[in-house]
């Protein structure tokens, strides 16, 4: 696994639910080494529901240590996180830069890397960040620069995971169908005109004139062959429904005509 030597170090986390969410985020991004430094009131049964059954093993195998120095023992690189700037906290890395230029090269060399996250209420202090080789900051809106612990973990791990893939994920676009030909577009217009006429949408007089806006509409975009097939199917279905409605209407009208003589005869007989 590309991130097998990546440690997620949580320094004095306060809420077991957040730790559970961190475990879930780790599983999503292919990380499994969780290090808890002096956690405050850790409760596995409170953390587990947020981790789900799939990531419970990350909580059960987490390493507990009393201080940050021991957590970083044996690592080749430690990257701390901060939401604060100024003072001596200069040269802050963005998550993508940290992943591409520092984390992954060191992991590729066989070294162990630690991503360090501070307590939810105050983050890492200067004393704690001084033990880290680099600091990373997640850009956020100035009105709220601090993130939930698991969100911060997920963002950093996402950058590491995506850059560790041999074939990075690429979203699949729409079907790669050819453009509809002139003949196909004309066939579609004829079918669409017939369908609109069947449902009474088009005027009986000069239907070609009323179809001009439809032609202009289709002219504004490239009609693909798969889209042509879709619209032709819609036209066929509309015409089928219209024919059924017409047949039912004719049947009902015929039934009413058949009943009229009986009603008239009944009136005549009652009048005698």
How would you characterize the overall build of this protein?
This protein has 272 residues and is α/β, with parallel strands linked by helices. The chain has two domains: 6-164, Alpha/beta knot (3-Layer(aba) Sandwich); 182-271, no CATH class. It is built from nine helices and six strands. Helix 1 runs parallel beside helix 6, helix 4 crosses helix 6 and helix 7 (182-198) runs parallel beside helix 9 (225-271). The longest helix has 47 residues, at 225-271. It starts with 5 loop residues before the first strand and ends with a helix. Residues 261-272 have low confidence and may be disordered.
Throw out a few tags for this protein.
272 residues; disordered C terminus; six-stranded parallel β-sheet; single chain; 53% helix; 2 domains; Alpha/beta knot; alpha/beta
CATH architecture field of the largest domain? 3-Layer(aba) Sandwich
Number of DSSP strand runs: 6
**Separate helix tally:** 9
What oligomeric state do the depicted chains represent?
A: single chain
Question: Could you name the CATH homologous superfamily of the largest domain?
Answer: SPOUT methyltransferase, trefoil knot domain
Low-confidence stretches: 261-272
State the distance separating the first and last CA atoms: 101 Å
Mean pLDDT: 86
Category from helices, strands and their pairing = alpha/beta
Global shape? elongated
Strand order within the widest beta sheet: 3-2-1-5-4-6
Please give the domain count.
2
Could you name the CATH class of the largest domain?
A: Alpha Beta
Helix and strand element order: EHEHEHEHEHEHHHH
Tell me the radius of gyration: 35 Å
Largest sheet: 6 strands, parallel
